[in-house]
Amino acid sequence: MTKLCPRCGSLRVVHTNYGQRVGGTVGTVAGAVSGAVTSGPTGALIGSRIGIQVGVIAGPAGVGAGAVLGAIAGAFAGCLAGLRLGKVVDQHLFCHHRCTDCRAHF
Fold it and tell me: Which of the two ends of the chain, N or C, has the fewest CB atoms closer than 10 A to its terminal CB?
C-alpha cells in the first residue's frame, strides 16, 4: 500500500525509522564498551593462565583477544536491544513517514 503525502499529494514517501537508527547506534557503542570493560578482567585472568602454560608471548594476546571478543558480543547484544527499543519509540513517539518532495513528516 503506497502512502500519499497529505501536504502535497506526492507518492514519493519514505519510512523515517529515526528511533531505530539512533537506538541501534547507541546500543552498539554502549554494548561494545560494556562488553570490553566487563570481559577485560576475565580475559586477563584466562590470558595469564595461558601465558603461564604456553609462555610469555601468549599471555598479552589472550588478554587482548578476550577484550575484543567481549566487545564484539556486547556490541551485538546492545545493537539488538537498541533496535528493539528504537522500534517501540518509532511506533509511539515519532512520525512514521517523510515526503521526499516537500519534506513533510506525518
Answer: N
User: How much of the chain is in helix, strand and coil states, percent to nearest 5?
Assistant: 70, 5, 25
Phi, psi for 105 (deg, rounded to 5)? -105, 135
- Can you tell me the distance from the alpha carbon of 56 to that of 70, in angstroms, rounded to the nearest whole number? 22
Q: Which residues pair with 15 in a beta bridge?
A: 97
C-alpha cell at 86: 528504537
Is the full-model pTM beyond 0.90?
A: no
Residue with cell 515526503: 99
How long a stretch of residues is the chain?
106
How confident is the model over 50-80, as pLDDT tens digits?
656 665 555 566 667 777 888 888 899 999 9
Q: What are the structural domain ranges in the chain?
A: 18-99
| Of 77, 99, 70, nearest in space to 12 by CA | 99
**C-alpha cell of residue 52:** 603461564
